């Protein structure tokens, strides 16, 4: 995909056959127009029935919209006006489902070799099979039958098999949904590595805000068959695109670098453009780049610098604006801290008593921060 910075998905009037998608409302229709980066993970986020999986199936060619234009890596996969429509088997993509659909009569190596034989024309710079095996950490599993794998291992093998076809696009439909918390924790680092090292775009479906914060480069928020907002993950989480991930998951995503480690107290200091925060060290190393999520409900505000407080993370900020929250007793205050944006959910009464208004210099107190990778 050298020289191609985006890929284009245009779909209109997609109405899945009755009974095939029980979670979709009667009369559901998908209508989207997306231009997404040609690398990293673009997450399709939304509630069940919002159209995430339907969109994925249309891209794969498993469902046919009345009007469509798909352009991946500068190549047209589908254009109804020009009567172009590559069949599924000719679309150079990998598809990973919720349940790992492996061939039980083959061992892991056999599953991977089958996929490599079915690959289309090799792409310049495509991962070799050995590199794919190394990236997903499945070398020790090659001789095992698929029935001998744990859920997390099966899903890693399924992802490796999808990559073995040397796709131009990787589609992942809630790949962690069928796993318990321990297996999810096992597979997430491998997904992060794919995001950071692969040079192909990935479309990833989820309704988990935690997965959005940890994996996404770009977020598409889906509702009622429409893409209601699209943007970089930090901007979408902070509501800068006009449609924040509201409710108790409203949060800010900070990307920073580990600048200090306090071995005595088992803490690490993460610096970013706007200050720094302390958090549990847990195997972090100096100069490591990390993502930190700060929930709006964990940020309080003071108009003077607090002293003699147990809260370790204090940031000098400026109020950007105040918006009502879902409940009339609450409001969300948007804060500017250097180049970073923070959200604080406080009572409307507190905002009034503090005299908060745009332009006011304040101190943000971060009661809790969470490392997301």
Feature tags:
373 residues; alpha+beta; Rossmann fold; OB fold (Dihydrolipoamide Acetyltransferase, E2P); 2 domains; six-stranded mixed β-sheet; five-stranded antiparallel β-sheet; 8 helices; globular
Fold topology:
Elements: E1 6-14, E2 30-37, E3 40-45, H1 52-60, E4 67-72, E5 75-79, E6 84-85, E7 93-96, H2 108-117, H3 129-136, H4 151-164, E8 169-173, H5 181-197, E9 201-206, H6 209-215, E10 218-223, E11 226-232, H7 233-237, E12 251-262, E13 267-272, E14 275-280, E15 289-295, E16 299-302, E17 313-324, E18 330-337, E19 340-347, H8 348-354, E20 361-366, E21 370-371
Parallel strand pairs: 3-9, 3-10, 7-8, 8-9
Antiparallel strand pairs: 1-2, 1-4, 4-5, 5-6, 10-11, 12-13, 12-15, 13-14, 15-21, 16-20, 17-18, 17-20, 18-19
Helix pairs in contact: 2-4, 3-4, 4-5
Give a brief description:
With 373 residues, the protein is α+β, with helices and mostly antiparallel strands. The protein has helices at 52-60, 108-117, 129-136, 151-164, 181-197, 209-215, 233-237, 348-354; strands at 6-14, 30-37, 40-45, 67-72, 75-79, 84-85, 93-96, 169-173, 201-206, 218-223, 226-232, 251-262, 267-272, 275-280, 289-295, 299-302, 313-324, 330-337, 340-347, 361-366, 370-371.
């Amino acid at each position: 995909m050298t020289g191609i910075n985006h890929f284009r998905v245009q779909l209109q009037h997609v109405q899945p056959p009755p009974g095939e998608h029980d979670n979709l409302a009667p009369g559901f229709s998908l209508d989207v127009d997306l231009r997404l980066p040609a690398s990293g993970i673009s997450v399709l986020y939304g509630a069940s029935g919002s159209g995430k999986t339907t969109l994925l199936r249309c891209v794969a060619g498993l469902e046919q919209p009345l009007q469509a234009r798909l352009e991946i890596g500068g190549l047209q996969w589908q254009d109804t006006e020009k009567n172009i429509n590559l069949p599924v088997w000719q679309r150079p993509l990998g598809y990973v489902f919720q349940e790992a659909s492996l061939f039980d009569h083959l061992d892991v190596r056999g599953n991977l070799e089958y996929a490599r034989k079915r690959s289309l024309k090799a792409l310049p710079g495509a991962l070799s099979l050995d590199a794919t095996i190394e990236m997903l950490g499945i070398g020790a599993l090659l001789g095992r039958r698929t029935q001998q794998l744990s859920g997390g291992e099966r899903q890693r093998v399924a992802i490796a098999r999808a990559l073995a076809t040397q796709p131009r696009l990787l589609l992942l439909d809630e790949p962690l949904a069928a796993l318990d918390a321990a297996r999810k924790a096992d597979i997430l680092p491998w997904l992060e590595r794919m995001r950071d090292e692969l040079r192909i775009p990935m479309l990833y479906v989820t309704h988990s805000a935690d997965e959005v914060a940890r994996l996404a480069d770009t977020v598409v928020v889906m509702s009622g068959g429409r893409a209601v907002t699209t943007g970089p993950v930090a901007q979408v989480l902070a509501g800068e695109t006009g449609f924040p991930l509201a409710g108790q998951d409203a949060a800010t995503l900070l990307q920073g670098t580990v600048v200090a480690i306090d071995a005595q107290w088992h803490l690490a200091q993460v610096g970013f453009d706007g200050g720094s925060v302390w958090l549990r060290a847990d195997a972090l190393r100096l100069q490591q780049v990390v993502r930190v999520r700060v929930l709006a409900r964990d940020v309080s505000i003071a108009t003077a610098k607090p002293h003699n407080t147990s809260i370790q993370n204090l940031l000098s900020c400026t109020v950007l604006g105040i918006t009502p929250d879902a409940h009339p007793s609450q409001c969300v205050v948007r804060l500017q801290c250097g180049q970073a944006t923070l959200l604080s959910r406080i009572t409307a009464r507190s905002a009034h008593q503090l005299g908060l208004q745009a332009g006011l210099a304040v101190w943000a107190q971060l009661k809790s921060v969470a490392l997301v990778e």
